[in-house]
Amino acid sequence: MDMTTKASQAMWMTVLVLALGAAPACSQGESQPQSAAAAVPADLQSGEQKFVANCSACHGVGGVGTKQGPPLVHKIYEPNHHGDAAFQRAAANGVQSHHWEFGNMPKIPGVSPSDVEQIVKYVRWLQKQAGIF
Ligand code: HEC
Prior knowledge:
- With about 130 residues, the chain is mostly helical.
- It has a domain at about 40-130: Cytochrome c-like domain (Cytochrome Bc1 Complex, Chain D, domain 2, Orthogonal Bundle), CATH 1.10.760.10.
- Helix content is about 45%, strand content about 0%.
- The chain has helices spanning about 5-20, 45-55, 55-60, 85-95, 115-130.
- Helix 2 (about 45-55) packs across helix 5.
- The longest helix has 20 residues, at about 5-20.
- It is elongated.
- Mean pLDDT is about 85; it is low at about 25-35.
- The site of heme C has 26 residues, from helix 3, helix 4 and helix 5.
């Protein structure tokens, strides 16, 4: 491969990277153009902390999923398909694997119903940021 080809390939890579980097993180067309990385609102921060402490080991920081569990920031878990009661049930009783191949979710004894309520508010916010509903 001659130098000219290499240089032009490098140039196209740069163009591609710039184009991708410039793409809007959120194409919702909403009034506040927040990305998924937007700062967590103050009233959701205790829910975030509880999520990190009790859920993110499997559901991932920011609810994006891990090898141990599915993303909660996912169409499947939007409010009309998995309402807030499904979150309460999941924490209180655990979940029999049915949507994915991660295995069962154990019950999470460290959280009270009001903790889960705060966690759900945080997860709904993440889902909204991601344009899921
Ligand atoms: C040890 C890993 C683990 C932890 C910790 C965990 N989950 Fe899960 N969770 C899972 C797995 C795996 C599934 C998927 C089960 C399936 O295949 O549908 C799941 C599913 C769910 C569901 C879907 C329930 C349904 O009805 O389908 C909800 C809601 C949920 N988790 C919420 C939480 C919340 C809230 C926490 C923290 C309080 C939490 N999870 C902690 C592993 C975990």
